[in-house]
Design brief:
Distance between the termini: 37 Å
Number of domains: 2
Structural class: alpha+beta
Number of helices: 3
Length: 136
C-alpha cells in the first residue's frame, strides 16, 4: 500500500524539523556556555564541587588481540561511569569511577541512578555538588 503525501505536507514537516533543530542548537549552545562558566569559576572548593559524569564505552573482558581466540572465548561486559572534576580548581576532587559488570546489573535508568547514589555517598563531606551529565 502506497500512501500519497502532498508536497506541501513535506514542506510543513521539514519546517517543523528545522524549527526543532534550531531550538535544540540554541539549548546546546546555552548549556555549553554555562558549562564553561562553571569550568572557569573560582568558587569550587573541597566542600563545594562541580563534576562531569559520563558513562564510558562498554568494556569487553578479557581483552584479546587475536581474532581466532575471540571466537572461542567467553567474555563479560563491564560498565564504567566516571566522575571527573570540571575546571581548573578541581584538582582537590580527583576523578572517580564506578565499575560493574553485567552479572551485577545492566545500564538501565535504575542502575545508573544507583551509580549516582553510590558516588554521592562517597562524597558525604561535600556540602554542594553540581553534576554535569551528557545525553546518556
Amino acid at each position: 500500500m502506497i500512501i500519497f503525501i502532498p508536497k506541501t505536507t513535506w514542506t510543513w514537516i521539514n519546517a517543523i524539523s528545522a524549527k526543532k533543530w534550531n531550538v535544540h542548537i540554541k539549548k546546546a549552545k546555552e548549556a555549553r556556555r554555562k558549562y564553561r562558566e562553571d569550568a572557569d569559576s573560582t568558587e569550587w572548593t573541597t566542600s563545594n564541587i562541580c563534576v562531569s559524569a559520563d558513562l564510558q564505552k562498554v568494556i569487553m573482558l578479557p581483552r584479546i588481540d587475536t581474532f581466532k581466540q575471540v571466537l572461542f572465548t567467553q567474555r563479560i561486559i563491564a560498565f564504567n561511569e566516571s566522575f571527573v572534576g570540571v575546571g581548573k580548581n578541581q584538582k582537590s576532587v580527583g576523578p572517580a569511577a564506578v565499575i560493574w559488570h553485567e552479572a551485577l546489573a545492566g545500564r538501565k535508568k535504575e542502575e545508573i541512578c544507583s551509580v549516582l547514589h553510590k558516588y554521592l555517598l562517597s562524597q558525604r563531606d561535600v556540602l554542594t555538588i553540581k553534576i554535569w551529565l551528557d545525553n546518556c
